[in-house]
Amino acid sequence: MKHRLSLLFLSMQNLTRRPFRTYALVLAIAIVSGAIFSTTTLMWGVNSSLKRGLSKFGADLLVVPRGSLISMKSALLTGEPSVFYMDSDILKTIASIKGVKKVSPQLFLSSVEGDCCVMGNAFIIGFDPATDFTVLPWIEEKIEAIFQMDYAIVGGSNSYNVGDDIFFYGQKLKVFGKLGRTGVGLYDNAVFINIEKAYSMAEESHKLPGVSPLKIVRGQISASLVQLDLGAKLPFISFTISKNPDVKVITAGNIITSVRQNLVALFSSTLILSIVLIIANTLMISAIFSTIINERKRELGLLRAIGAKKISIFGLIIYEATLLTSFGGFLGVAVGIVIMRIYQRTIIFNLKSLNMPYIWPSAASIVLLAVAAIGIAVVVGITGTFYPALRGSKLHPYDAIRAGE
Asked: Does the global pTM surpass 0.90?
C-alpha cells in the first residue's frame, strides 16, 4: 500500500512539471472519450427505446395495405398522422391461419384544426376493446370505470390528463386512461378511441360545416395486429398472409433493422472519427511518453541506483498515463453529459424526424456507458505508454545517469 502511494505521489509530481503538455494530453483524451460517450449514449437510447416500445406493442405481426409500408413505419416511430385503409375481411382470413392466437383491428384518423376540434392535427386511432391486446394492458393511469364508447385513452407524451374532456369533429370524449411512455410515437402521441366511435365520428364529420369530412366507411380498417401462439412459426404465417396481393406484413424485426440502418448511417462518421482519434491519441501518447523517458533518464537511473526495481519504474510510468487518461476521460464524459442535456430537445427532435424513437437511458445505463468511455480512455493511455514504459524500466542505472548528464 505504501509502495502504491509513493508511486501515485511521484506520478502526480511528474505530471505537474509540464502543465501545458499535461493539459493538452488531457484535452485530447477528453475529446475522444466525450465523442465515444455521446455517440454510444444516443445509440443506446434509440435501441433501448425501440425494444421497449415494441415489447409493449405486443403484436408479432402488423398487416397493412400494400403501398403503406413507409407511412406505417413513420406512424409507428414518430406518431405522425397517417391514413390508409383496407377491407376488414382480412381479419377473418388471418384468424383462420394455424398458429394465430389473436387478431385486432385499428383504424387511423387524423383530426383537423377548427371549431370542432381542440387538439389540432392529432393522430386518432380506433381500436376494438373486445379483441385488443396492445392498448388496454399498458394503461398506467385511469379513472375507476369500465371503458365506454365516449372514452379515450391518450399516449404518454400527450398533454392531456386522465379525466380531461377533448373534442373531435363535434364529439366530446373523456380521457379514460393514459399509457406509459414507450419511445414509440404511435403509442406515445396518439389518442385511442373505440373503433365504433371512430366510424360514427367519420359519419358525423360529413355534417359539420367548413370541415373536410373523414373519407372512411364502416368495414374499413388501417391495420391488423396479430399475436401468435407460443411456438408458432412466424416466417410461415407471415408468408401465408403475404400471399394476399393487397397487403403487406411488418414484423418488429423489420422496424428494428430499418432504424438500426438509419442509426449506423447517422453516426457512422462520428464512429469513424472516434476510431481515428483513438489511434491518433495512442500514437501521440506513445511519442510524448518516449520523449518524457528521454528527458528523465537521469532521474530514472537514480531511482534504479537506490534500489527501485524494474517493475517499479514500469509502474510509475503506467501510473502517470492512467492518471492522465482517467482524468481526461472523466472530463470528456462530464462535458458530454452537459452538452447533451443542454441540447436534449433538439437531439430528440432531430432523431424523431429521422424515424428514430428516443427516451434517455436510465441513470444506471448512463453510468455504465460513462465507465466504459473512461475505461477506453485509460486503455488508450496504457497502450500508448506500454512500450516507452517497458524501455524506461530496462535502462541500466549507470548508463541512464550518464546519459542524463
From this structure: no
